[in-house]
Amino acid sequence: MTTMTIAKAINEGLRATLSNNPKTLLMGEDIGPLGGVYRVTDGLIGEFGADRVVDTPLAESGIIGTAIGLALRGYLPVCEIQFDGFVFPGFNQITTQLAKMHSRSNGNLTVPVVIRIPYGGGIGSIEHHSESPEALFAHTAGIRIITPSNPHDAYWMIQQAVDCQDPVIVFEPKRRYWLKGEVDTQTAGLAEDPFKAHVVREGTDATVVVYGPLVPVALAAANAAAEDGRSIEVIDLRSISPIDFDTIEASVKKTGRLIVSHEAPTFGGIGGEIAARIGERAFHSLEAPVIRVGGFHMPYPVAKVEEDYLPDIDRILEALDRAFAY
Amino acid sequence: MGATHLPSTEFDGTEVDDQLEAEAEAALGEPRTEMVQLLGPDGTLGTDSVFSEYAERLDAEKLRGFYADMAAIRRFDQEATALQRQGQLALWVPLTGQEAAQIGSGRASQPQDYIFPTYREHGVALTRNVDLAELLRQFRGISNGGWNPKDTNFHLYTLVLAAQTPHAVGYAMGIQRDQRLAEANGLADSQPAEPKAAVMVYFGDGASSEGDVHESMVFASSYKAPVVFFCQNNHWAISVPTAVQTRIPLSNRAKGYGFPGIRVDGNDVIAVHAVTEWALEHARQGNGPVLIEAFTYRVGAHTTADDPTKYRESSEEALWRAKDPLERLEKYLRSEDMADDSFFAKVAADGDELAAYIRKSTYDSETPDIRTAFANTYVEAHPLVAEELAWFEEYTAGFASEDAAEGAGH
């Protein structure tokens, strides 16, 4: 066991995958000598050289597009998109090319590209630096989306993303990059299926589903609710595409209430998808409608008011109150 | 690595620019502004200080082969157009007029090279030994691809314009790494070296305006990737003329990226072959990318759904028909006694045979099962796909049992 931050865990995970497979390479803006704007690739160019840690021209479509070509040649590219709001120049390559290549080749071609995207708000930053665009990608068949919430998952999930033969987007909770936790780097068997959700706190009265940056928030809300005598189960979704509905369904059949919270706007979001599916699967177990706690239908607001936009402990508790009032 | 590789902040590009110009001059002679042409519309062979040497390597058999290829793909094009008119294809994208650009460049490639087409490169497909019946699958609505690119190193058609250009550069970056890995592992000493490979990517004058072309050229230039950008300037992006895409010859754009750009008469199969052979060799030898602009013309419609009478004069089409790539090669072959009537009769007969094969293959093609779409969305097992497939099976099985019940009732 080693204690490290999420940023360091991803760094170590990337180091491991670069060491284990000569076909792995990293691509992105400022990921070389600088180590990335969040230092996630710190030191890797020195160890693995500029052929495998590639500082690219400043062009996201070019990064994803050339990564697709490298994958067609047998390489395993891991692309870093500098910030969530800057992925869109590469959106065409991700949705029309990367996601469809295996299908349109009738299964003859695989493009195991990994795209790392630091996402989410709460860092007091400027426009385009705090967004949560995961639903835009989840709607696209052919790609997988995972998001670790703690250092142990971060260390293993980045490696599992590289091992996966499908394209994987890894949304990294940027405001938790410096969150510390224990990582067991020794036993690969400790790596769990990256596409399965985890029950991170057991409870009996209501279920709160969260992922990425909101996992600590939901746990704190559950602690606060416990003081009022409510036993809250918290699920860390871990995978946004596919979604592990089985784990959520089992929990809801036990608790009868479901809150889904994410930073992204609720309209057309992951919470809506979970609400609909659980409505179909566990209708008779539900004591209340599934309630979503998320961002508003507006461009991500300026930093000075982002606290009013982001789901926090109180907003999750308020949603729980509504669920219990039914 | 690390600190020793920090770039100089004094880099202003001028030194590299001078160096690249000197390299280009050494390879290509004086800076070229004129179009490379060897075989004129009247069927006479001219000379070029650099490219005549390449033309001289072509013997009579090769030239007859070029003619046969161009005639075959034109016949194929007519057949596919007819199949669309008969309702057998949803859409067709004719290539007539561009045969020399495609056969000349495709025949200059080697098996180890990898080719990324747009969607009109039927002639290039022929040179890469793609089964032309498979080429029609996408247009018949029975596949989004149709062939396995690994068999021929000819990638699938890409319909989102220019999206394949960065793929080509990335593939070329992979070739560079493969070579460096092989050198590092000392494989060159113990085993016969793999033939050096390059990538060639096709796009048009319309697609040249897409940002992906720009980004690709930046990447290719920065990493000196072994890629040839082959732009067929066929003068029309559906209804919009080239002048809306560019105010200068497209080949001139290469200079801004720091690699050679050559405009070639795209209706002159000998010149296209020579220029492409030079460019691919340039790339394979590690000298970086080349842009070729093949100056040609789309004689027919953009697709079978298009109506060129709405946007261009038939006199313009007539002007270009006079520069026909097949006619000029026929004139040359006949004047040099390289081919006679029996050769051209054989080519025509082969064309009819190809057309019959294409027609039959299209009629015989099997409609796929949607289960293959379920199977190919992901490589690895996916619970949502599995759930939806299970529902679909149950749903369709319901109809089967209804049918059985109805059958039993009669």
Describe this structure in words.
- In chain A, 36% of the residues lie in helices and 20% in strands.
- Chain A has 12 helices and 14 strands.
- Chain A has helices at 6-20, 44-48, 60-72, 91-98, 101-104, 134-138, 151-163, 215-227, 245-255, 270-282, 306-309, 313-325; strands spanning 2-5, 24-28, 53-55, 76-80, 114-119, 144-146, 168-173, 180-183, 198-201, 206-210, 232-236, 239-241, 258-265, 291-295.
- In chain A, the strands form 3 sheets. Chain A has a 7-stranded mixed β-sheet, sandwiched between helices. In chain A, strands 9-11-10-13-14 form a 5-stranded mixed β-sheet, with helices on both faces. In chain A, strands 1-8 form a two-stranded antiparallel sheet.
- The longest helix of chain A is centred in the N-terminal third of the chain and has 15 residues, at 6-20.
- The mean pLDDT of chain A is 97.
- In chain B, helix 3 crosses helix 4 (99-108) and helix 4 packs parallel to helix 14 (269-284).
- The longest helix of chain B is centred in the C-terminal third of the chain and has 27 residues, at 383-409.
- In chain B, a hairpin with a 2-residue loop joins strand 4 (236-237) and strand 5 (240-241).
- Chain B folds into 2 domains: 19-186 and 193-364, Thiamin diphosphate (ThDP)-binding fold, Pyr/PP domains (Rossmann fold); 371-409.
- The mean pLDDT of chain B is 93.
- Chain B has helices at 14-28, 52-56, 60-85, 99-108, 122-127, 132-135, 137-140, 149-152, 164-184, 187-190, 211-223, 242-245, 253-257, 269-284, 314-321, 325-335, 341-364, 370-376, 383-409, and strands at residues 114-116, 199-204, 227-233, 236-237, 240-241, 261-265, 290-295.
